[in-house]
Amino acid sequence: MNTVILAEKPSQAKAYAEAFEVAKREKTHIELKPCSTFPDGAVITWGIGHLVGLKMPGEYRKEWKNWDIKNLPIIPAQFEYKVSEDKKVQFNAVKKLINNADVVINACDIDREGSNIFYSTFNMTGAKNKTIKRLWINSLEVDEIVKGFQSLQSNEKDLLMYSEAKTRQISDWLVGMNASPLYSLLLQNKGLNASLSIGRVQSPLVYMIYQHQKEIENFVSKPFFELVGHFKSTNGQYTGKAKVKTDTLKELISFLEEKNLVLNKEITGEVLEIETKEKHIKSPRLHSLSTLQKIANKRWKYSPSKVLEIMQSLYEKKIVTYPRTSINFITENEFVYLSNNVENYMQLINVDFTPNKVANKRYVDGTKVQEHYAIIPTKTIPSANTLNSLSVEEKHIYDEVLRNTLAMFHSDYLYEETKIVTAVNNVKFETVGKVEIEKGWKALFVQSDDEEHVENGSNKVLPSVSKDERVLSILQSKEGHTTPPKPYTEGDLVKVMKNAGKTVDDESDKEILNEVEGLGTEATRSSIIETIKKNGYITVTKNIVSVTNKGKILCEAIEGTLLASPVMTAKWEGKLKEIGTGKSSPENFISNIKAFIMNLIQEAPKKIGQVSNIEQTIKIEQANNNKGNCPCCKKGQMIDRKTFLGCSEYKNGCKFSINKIIATKKLTEKNINDLLEKGITSVIKGFKSKTDKSFDAKLKVTGDKVTFEFSK
């Protein structure tokens, strides 16, 4: 039997090959020697992510190449695929291998995009009558790989996942290829000198951030007054707070007068209740990708996409399990190997405690595990050399995964909480204090005050008092001010997407959003955040997220439409999941998307015409993006296009542009201003040639190009 294994990327293929004996390595594939798993040997080849993608509009019809409202809607009668130009060599090698194979194994990532990459590639090869099997593993360790290849799954479930992924791909294409030109052209008619990218998931996310930002901007702080009691008992002093809050001091004084009380005057109070409880706080749940992204952003300011990138690297180094998981549980199988290795894990971070090796349903529950389990360390215990070779970021993330997993084996955090209720003329004041008894799992975490790892409560140590004890009391007012909601951090965005149900009022909509776990999936949320950053809709400064003027224009344009609604996206995601389980058909879904687009083309011009303040926002955006006059045609303005500056007279033939990075060197604002105003810069140091040699030169405007000028 001629067996071909298709991996998603070269690093994955390399990991598979390391589990077997290699006969030969080629540029496009690796040949394995015969073994018990593959009696006739096997060939591992790979994609480079997507080798195959959907064709662009202009490849279906000539008139679809350039944006024009009269050419909308863009809906091909039949969707067609093409091989990416820069990946043709690898595709041709894969095609040849698959066509000569008897058995083809899908060994791409175990999610719907992995299924999409495999089947879109396989179908493009034109191969027929092949036996297709699916590799399903959560770790790249040698024994897991071998075990996976020895117990391959059928492709029934895989085909459904591909159907779901393909439907998602086509629907996103339809929305993007129609909504983006529609809104861009309508807004360009109102003076916008830019294009907008509109997407099924990215647009509702931008709108949610925009709404939150507006809430902060429109917030008006108001004062409030609380009642505080300062008490002196036989054994010491303590402070309590009454459950009284008024808008003005006058209202607070009126309340006190009713109770025959005054501020700042000694009066006798009485201890009504003393309650002391021992409280146990269990360790945090095991990490899913989103909980890890949130804590890493809070602690080290890593973006969600950075965390996924680091996790992918650690996964390929075989020391953590599959990263793209939404599950916080493991099965009994994983618990067994973790228990067997717990002392080794403890040595890695130099901690010592007596581990509890009894499985707890808070962490170990096979009924809660679907395709993937929680993120945990693998059976492979990294050597000192391996750990030392990790980057600082990798060390941080591996350390967090390790400590989070070890916490499951540690004892509870234990403290004693004392509550004193003191009455002054029948007004009750509550005082809460906490005494730590045993650190337990918290001893594993240096930053033990992280919100993920701490129970809120007061750490005040209270004096010993007795019930009915008389205490000397002085009452005071405490003025506070209402505070606006906190701006989102980049780490918050993952949670905002996951908990999008909290932003809607309708109960049935809330239910839908909760059911599909909000916007996007665990595997896609970080890339969606990167997309809206790349499209210039948000900026992240010191980890704080802000909507740009371009983002505001988008939100003002789509306000009140389904494109701004997380509910629509959730309903679509719900239907896609039904396709993935065989309960719904792709044809029905695509038909609804087409109807949505037709309605959008009809309604968008009317809605944009009704937005009163959009022209003003466009003027602000244009002023910010206008960097000066074009030194080439002298007519146009140089517009900031994110990665380059381009002339506004482009459509009239001016091709002049300035890349912001030239020969690996990022240009400064002064460099750009010099080119626009003087036509030449001073000497810039540190350019790099194609052969990686460093050189210094001036930049000069020559005709419609920017060229180097070297000193004589």
Automatic annotation (TrEMBL):
Q: What is its EC number?
A: 5.6.2.1
Alphabetically sorted, this entry's keywords are: DNA-binding, Isomerase, Magnesium, Metal-binding, Topoisomerase
Xref: InterPro entries: Topo_IA, Topo_IA_2, Topo_IA_AS, Topo_IA_cen, Topo_IA_cen_sub1, Topo_IA_cen_sub2, Topo_IA_cen_sub3, Topo_IA_core_domain
The keyword DNA-binding is assigned to this record: yes
The yes or no answer to whether the keyword Protein biosynthesis is present is no
Q: Which family does it belong to?
A: Belongs to the type IA topoisomerase family.
Spell out the protein name for this chain. DNA topoisomerase
Recall the taxonomic lineage recorded for the source organism: Bacteria, Bacillati, Bacillota, Bacilli, Bacillales
Q: What gene name is given for the protein in this entry?
A: topB
